[in-house]
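Protocol step 4 of 6: structure prediction from sequence.
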Amino acid sequence: MDRPLISVIVPIYNVEKFIHKCVNSILEQSYPNLEIILVDDGSPDNCGAICDQYEQQYRHVKVVHKSNGGLSDARNAGLEVATGEYIGFVDSDDYIHKDMYNELFHHMTLTNSDIAECAVERIYADKVVAEETGEVTVLSGTQALKSHLSSEGNGYMPRTAVWSKLFSRKIIDRMEGMVFPKGEIHEDYLFTCKALYYSNKVCLVNKCLYHHIYTNPSSITQSSFSSKDLYKELQYMNRMEFLKKLKLQDHFLLAKSSYYKLLLQFFYKCHIAGMKEECLYYKQKIKEHHSDIVRTKIGWKKKLEFIVFSISPNVYLKIRANLN
């Protein structure tokens, strides 16, 4: 019996160095019925021509050429032409295990789930981190959402990323309006939140089937603040508003805890970047929410950080610098 079609959407921009490894890893999938959609988001290098070569060589590869609109817009463009019953996303500087979609689809259908998620191998400049147990866990949509929110702030946990997951198309179609808001960054946060909420079941496959290329987080570039971080704060706020409207109190409190941790992180990043105005903005914002922060469940270590900050932001910065 023919297996359902899976559409894999790959937004592409200025990744000539990585594109072959990425696309070839999708072409080599053991799952037999894939539609690969390469979205050239106005890339200034040779990526557009490389995409066309793949389309000419493989009949199950589609190419969309568009003017640059960012990651969200590229994903939307891919969704517009996708015909699969299931949808996957791959970032163009990453690559995937040959059995990724075969494994995810198998467990998805076996457990009658709407979303399947795998563990992620994190590839840094100086090391590779792969943590897997092989276990398969099935949760309700709201349970999975709570699990995702609970994991935030505990180191690098790409739980909100769309690229480690396989989605039933019907879940995506339930979302109102544009799935990925154009021009916004970190749009995964609200998208994944909504997708999990709308799902009846979510299957977590604890195998490292996705290989994520990750630059060194301890470098100055990664530690400092950028304009993109403002979008991350916005997505955290949008997610809180979404959960509040649904009256999911436990989930809302977890999202609020993540938001408060983010404010403290951004205060430090602005300090590292020497951005005095932004530093003052986050300093005032933390002080504004201080009474609520100390009542929120954020863990005793993080709460201690906030207490030190409330006494003296300068002392907090010195302690944080020494810990790094």
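Step 5 (inspection) to follow. The longest strand covers residues 201-213.
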